[in-house]
Design brief:
homodimer, mainly alpha, 3-stranded antiparallel sheet, about 55% helix, about 10% strand, elongated, DNA-binding
Chain lengths: ~120, ~120
DNA sequence: TGAACATATGAACGATTGTTCACATGTATA
DNA sequence: TATACATGTGAACAATCGTTCATATGTTCA
């Protein structure tokens, strides 16, 4: 995935007009943004993480509660929370030995809702 | 990822109240929906597929044009288009030996836009 | 300080994924 | 029908991912 043509033959024409090509390419965000965008969606692309985000939909929960509610090991939950935290999708606060996690902003809720809307209509 | 606790020790309490647990669990979609939701987002979680969806944002394009515009091999594009087609995110029409692909509905555009909005604000 | 508890993390392993390569399929035209 | 061209696809391979296991970190309380 280095943006290079792998040597396979490609057709020797373009169907789209030259100005259409220019339009498409100018509207295309740069590679870094596209990478970040893919990375964002990759966060939602795992069942365990989706479940974690969903149980945090209403209120903050500690690691242990999440693990028990979902029937997943504490370690697995902790690993995934770290990934979600690095992606700034969840935030946490410490209270004694307990760490509470919550959704970082309403965008997360919007994305989940929009995705759910889509699969319910298909 | 079988929903079973891997045997790791979990805490022997719940911070949330019993009714809160019930509320969280009742609001949680069933496993099949959550799997479908994760699968949907997984489609957006790859740079190549994101790029393909983006160049289809404005107009339909043939496989060859997509490959040339993105500098990706025709085979790779074809493989990814099949995945996107199976996920009902793109549709196609045949015109002679050429096959034109287009976004299947406006949900795709909405999801892309919402995701982009999120990363631009972070 | 030491024991108990909640959480974090590194290493390892199996599973999944995306690409390439080679070739098959299907359509148009001479 | 033969050839050229656009697209589709199976196998193989490297890379990435998510879990488990064992253990480390950090906090509370006696």
């Amino acid at each position: 995935m280095d943006g290079r043509n792998g040597g396979a033959p490609t057709c020797d024409y373009l169907f789209v007009h030259e100005d259409a090509v220019a339009q498409v390419l100018s509207a295309l965000p740069d590679d870094e943004q596209l990478y970040d965008l893919a990375e964002l969606f990759r966060m939602f692309g795992d069942t365990t993480r989706i479940k974690i985000l969903y149980v945090l939909f209403e209120k903050e929960l500690c690691v242990c509660d999440i693990a028990k509610l979902l029937g997943i090991s504490q370690s697995a939950v902790s690993h995934q929370l770290r990934i979600l935290k690095d992606a700034k999708l969840v935030r946490f606060r410490r209270d004694g030995r307990t760490v509470f996690y919550a959704l970082d902003d309403d965008h997360v809720r919007s994305v989940l809702a929009l995705g759910m809307e889509h699969i319910l209509e298909k």
